[in-house]
Amino acid sequence: MLAILRHRTFRHLFLAQTVALVGTGLATVALALLAYDLAGDDAGEVLGTALAIKMAVYVLLAPVSGALVPPRLRKCVLIALDLVRAAAALMLPFVDTLWQVYLLIALLQSASACFTPLFQSLIPEILPDERDYTRALSLSRLAYDLESLLSPMLAAVLLMVISFHGLFAGTSAGFVLSALLVLGTVFPAVEAAHGRGHPYERALRGMRIYLRTPRLRGLLAINLVAAAGGAMVFVNTVVIVRSALGGGDRDVAWAFAAFGFGSMAVALLLPRLLDRIPDRRVMLAAAVTMASALLVATVLWNGARAAIGWATLLPLWVILGMAYAGLVTPGGRLLRRSARSDDLPFLFAAQFSLSHACWLLCYPLAGWVGARFGLGTALLALSVVALSGLVFAWTTWPRRESAVLPHRHDDLPTDHPHWREYPAETDGVHAHEYFIDALHERWPR
């Protein structure tokens, strides 16, 4: 998997992503501790609100970012977005009221909502071979896991000598270094593939492709399962560790690291696993694991509270992390197989937006419900969400898939170029690799 780093352009972008995510991971720990400092036992509600704001701007801005930015400006835009994120992170240590936290989070995450789809859409252009792309996705997944593994470990060490406010400076430094790495990267020369029409019309193209492709509707349900488990970890870890277990700031960081350890362990195994086992089977197995772990946590919290301790929490967080990696890592492979290359930027933006709509549902469930009705109720609600996503994915995603599908074009003129490219066979039916586009607006039955 590390051999993919021989590709110079990908190596630079991967390093830019990694240092930015290490900084983001420091901010995750610092934000949780800041919320507890400002709101005490209601920190879950504060975090739920802050992260719901993050998801709202992701849902609104991500689809438009890929449509608005032409290829020739992607480098300048990515650098500018990194600098905006650096400035917002640098101001967070100076806030003393909740509305200031929410405002800066909205600014920082608006920049991230535009940055991430642009970054993700570059990878298939840089690495057109699917095996290379699969390994790049897993390596990219490992970089995301740094946010929940190495960053909390680094935070635990730093908290021995500085207050949590100093962690925000590390976040800002990560974004600045990311901008410098992007500056030194040679981007691929790609012609503008945005087509004509209003940017919002082009953005909606990705949504139409996504929602009309059966395997991607299954992927959306898988994203819901991942959000249910992830929201519980990211929102309520600080409350469980500080209030239920009586831990300190460093203990919060180590609990986050347990989740990241499980996620990274599975991400290392996935490239070879996906060479042998279909994506559907791997992702549904991970969904079963995630839903089962949430149900176990629900039973323990509501029925055997005395059993909740470090010996229970850490293994559960590791299992949730393992399931999380199995749910989210293969998603890019499905997207790449589900659209023509011209439409990939819009499809990645749609995935980014729709997946974060799932988080927009789950973050308030984890934070607001947990603060007002107790963590047991929040766990039960998130378990129901995970089980619902599992059932929908199982029934929606076809067991057998073929890239080449027979279909008809009853309303297409006989002299249309599409017939010359793919001649009709019996009864006006022809077959070719099938994607949702202007000529194929519905998936064939």
From TrEMBL:
Transmembrane as UniProt keyword:
yes
In terms of CDD domains, this protein maps to:
MFS_MefA_like
- Enumerate the Gene3D superfamilies for this protein: MFS general substrate transporter like domains (1.20.1250.20)
State the membrane topology: Multi-pass membrane protein
Residues crossing the lipid bilayer are 12-34, 46-69, 76-95, 101-127, 148-168, 174-195, 216-240, 252-270, 282-301, 307-325, 346-366, 378-397
Query: Where is the protein found, in the record's own terms?
Result: Cell membrane
> Where is it predominantly found?
membrane
Entry keyword DNA repair: no
Identify the residues that the record assigns to the Major facilitator superfamily (MFS) profile domain, covering every copy: 9-401
**Keyword set for this entry?**
Cell membrane, Membrane, Transmembrane, Transmembrane helix
Report the protein name in the record. Answer: MFS transporter
